[in-house]
Amino acid sequence: MNAKSRRDFIKKLGIGTAALTVGADIIDHHPALAFSAKSYRNIIGANERIQLATIGVNSRGSSMSGTFAKQKNATVACICDVDERAIPKAMKRVAEAGQSNTPRAEKDLRKVLEDKSIDAIYTATPDHWHAPLTIMACQAGKHVYVEKPMAHNPAEGEMAVAAARKYNRVVQMGAQRRSAPTLTKGIEFLHQGIIGKVYMAKTWYTNTRKATFLKPGTVPSWLDYDLWQGPAPRVPYKDGLIHYDWHWFWHWGTGEALNNGTHEVDVARWGLGVDFPTRVSSIGGRYQFQDDWETPDTQVVTLEYPTATLIWENRSCNGRQVEGLERGVIFYGDKGSLDTGEDAYKIYDLQGKLIKEEKSTSANEGLAGRNTASPSLGMDSLHAADFLDAIKNNRQPNCDIELGYKSTVAMLLGNISWRVGRDLRIDPKNGHIVGDAEAEKLWSRSYEPGWEPKI
Prior knowledge:
It contains 14 helices and 17 strands. A hairpin with a 3-residue loop joins strand 14 and strand 15 (about 345-350). Helix 3 runs parallel beside helix 4, helix 6 (about 125-140) runs parallel beside helix 7 and helix 11 (about 260-270) packs across helix 13. By secondary structure, the protein is of the alpha/beta class.
């Protein structure tokens, strides 16, 4: 979606929100007109709504089930998870959002894809499932909202983009800042030259994560571990892996670089107006604890693009903020700088004097940068609305899969650089590694036989 279309869409959403607020005020003063949230939510006929399934609903997916249930043009028709305990919690979120009909429950995502009544899926499964499920869903005729990162490795990310195009499906990556109205305005100012020529972006993420130790265990009765592994080659179950700490193991996860860095790097790429880098380097390590983590807790990724440099700094285990923010982005230009990270921005001159500032007027403004369920309900809602509108109007969403891939592959390349211990030369036309056979082996992965993604 171009800048003008995004502005128009956001304005349209704003009018709708205002109308709902006025309506609530009228009801408060005229009790005879009162009706429940559920009855108001269901005024639009069911046939006009997009039938959506949410897949992977333990934490983030549970929150987003409620977010989609609040959308006037969607119905959460199915909730799917390999953990049978997670499904009732997501059901509760949907009911609390005002949806009257109860979604059906399902443990096997393949059965969801076979259901011809489902128009679209939302997925917050682990990283190793993102691209294979996106490909499978496109083949099944479903539109897809896939959380970041949209791939576990570059090869399957390219395949997911190809699948979206081949089957003409709307695929949105969960980079919610792409639908944030105030941030969008700040990026437009950036492109218009408000800080002159923009030549560098610095991004960061901080947290105070604890040690992770895995130990042999028995698969719980509530978990379908075989299906949880899905496309990943089979390994024995271990206690402590599920549901979050898989992030720190290469077999399933992509580390903090993709778990959180994708968000800031996507904003930075957007502001810089760049596609694929020419050189990637990364340093860091697992410094805070001697535990089972495989990915670094401290990492700096430097991405050199033809016209600018992009830096991401991660401190997973030292929560000191940068510029007063847990996570954020700073753009540097020859006439000043622009700071952001949420639905807001600040513009400074070369001496560091604040010359312009704008914050979101939303009731849900602000960013809880370390909240794994939802850093910003307001941005979640806007991004979900954009996805549904893109389906209705047969257009690309704000973070179309190709945009999402370019941000994802940037950080995947950062991880590959860290794993091989050296800089990578990159073809800026397609993001491929040049002249490094060892690094190129990490471009793809092996799959469990029978689960290999195919277009």
